[in-house]
Fold this protein.
Amino acid sequence: MYDVAVIGSGPAGASAAIFTAKAGKKTVMFDGDLGVTKRAWVRNHYGVVDVDGPNLVATGKQQAQQFGTESVEAKVTSVSKSGDGFKIVTESGEYEAANVIVATGFWTDLADNLGVKTKDGTEPRVKTIIDVDAEGRTNVPGVWAAGTVAGVSVHTIVTAGDGARVAINLLSELAGSRYVDHDVLKQPE
Ligand SMILES: Cc1cc2nc3c(=O)[nH]c(=O)nc-3n(C[C@H](O)[C@H](O)[C@H](O)COP(=O)(O)OP(=O)(O)OC[C@H]3O[C@@H](n4cnc5c(N)ncnc54)[C@H](O)[C@@H]3O)c2cc1C
């Protein structure tokens, strides 16, 4: 069983997987190639000068894999409660995970069979979102949501930031104290 399953490897999902995998959590990340970021020409992402969406998404996936995330290129067709965790059914196999982070962008179709509450979106062109609390928890314990699907502004820096924020809140809940992930620059001798 995985500690964390992330559904969606756009800016929100991959950013979350970077943090959970780097924290040593066994992380699997799924993507069904339905994302919108691949159509973006991004000039307003802090710290990155002019990047096309496909490259931004590919780099995010590489970073998540670098820390041990297993990346599965398959659409998730259902997520359901199973024992102490969740069963994730994809077009190419089934998986088990203790926690789930939904980062599916404009897509909320997985919410219904999981019993996750949704509500009307408030951002332009976002019809429906998953109802989350301030930390990113849904009404189903163990299921979190981040990025566009959780109602944040539809910009890569914001959705990537939200993915990181929600992952840190999940890691903090698992640790029972606030989680911090800082690496220190080695000073020249
Ligand atoms: C034409 C265009 C131009 C844009 N330009 C900019 C810009 O200049 N600057 C900017 O900041 N933002 C821009 N954006 C917005 C930005 O690309 C994204 O909207 C935002 O970052 C969304 O991130 P996300 O991770 O929430 O969603 P997405 O990037 O959409 O990622 C969601 C992922 O979930 C996956 N998924 C969904 N359902 C399933 C499922 N059932 N199983 C498996 N995988 C699933 C999808 O394949 C997708 O990869 C632009 C968007 C568009 C469309």
Summary: Residues 156-175 form the longest helix (20 residues). The chain has one domain: 2-175. The chain is about 25% helix and 25% strand. The radius of gyration is 16 Å.
